[in-house]
Amino acid sequence: MPDDAPTTSLSRLGSDALAETPPGPEDLLRATLVDVAPGTALRDGLDRIIRGGTGALVVLGFDEIVASICSGGFVVDVEFTAPRLRELSKMDGAVVVDQSVGRIVRAGVQLLPDPATPTTETGTRQRTAERVSRQTGFPVIAVSKSMRNVAVYAGGLRHELEDTEEIANRAKQAVATLERYRDRLDEVSHTLLALEVEDLVTVRDIAQVAQRQEMVARIAEEIDGLILELGRDGRLLHMQYEELIQGVAENRRLLIKDYSPRMAGPEQITATLLGLAGIAPPELIELESIARVLGLSKGANGLDRAVSPRGYRLISRIPRIPEPVADRLVDHFGTVQRLLAASLDELTNVEGVGEQRGRAIREGLSRIAESSILERFV
Known about the structure:
It is built from 17 helices and eight strands. Strands 1, 2, 3, 4, 5, 6, 7 and 8 form an eight-stranded mixed β-sheet that branches. Helices cover 55% and strands 10% of the residues. The chain has 378 residues and is an alpha+beta fold.
């Protein structure tokens, strides 16, 4: 993969705990899409095959299992290059490369996967590709001679590569949508902050912010995959994307910590984020569905119920406050109103808050309170 090709991780839009989960089928597919992104030698080789009007089967990995289903062909063991892939694919058989796509291991082989391995494909080459991928665990690429398309099989998933220009157009439109979503998210987030300062927050206000955060996360997930497929061609879009999602992951985490009925640790935050991700698109517009996942829905008029934040979001806006200190401030004061009313002496009584940091917190809280109320009414 080129050094300057963008790589993104959607776990940034959720809890850090999400990034600790073992790699799944989608992770394997994403890694494979990086290998076949525009600008890579593998993509160049696949494009040459399509232009040449031939088909191909390419296995991206070699071990004892792959060797056991290979029949005939040639052991080549040469450095991988796009022209070599094109020429070797002219033979009536599959090409096997190593996992790093650095060397071509075998060529012209007949693949004989277990016929009992399930497949949903109908074409001979595609059926073989899916079965080999499922049986070996390695990604397999099938280039159709008649359809002139490229299908990637990885982790039990199938992904058809699209024309780079079409992907770029879709990505640009999605980034424009993300920009509008982010503007609306910032608007409702600022409103919530002003309501927190005034102690006027309701479940509805929280649900609106969580709803907008989830909408940003969903469109960002789509863009993430498109940029991944664009490789080097997506560098400028990648920069826009990075700027637009900045801070979203942390704000999602803090919102849950502020308003969860019980103090939320990493596992609870992860569970809540997964719950929000599981809401069907038609239900996402219903604030009651959001509130239910957040654990805040109670009674027929649950959305209008008053709620008090713990203060995590407020403290996060003060520069250079370590998370352990923020946790102790929340534990000590309990609510935003008590924190806003705290004197310098009361602040310095909290472990980790000396006189200098206490003054910074006191001034920061006053500045945030004034500016948030002004923004709400201007």
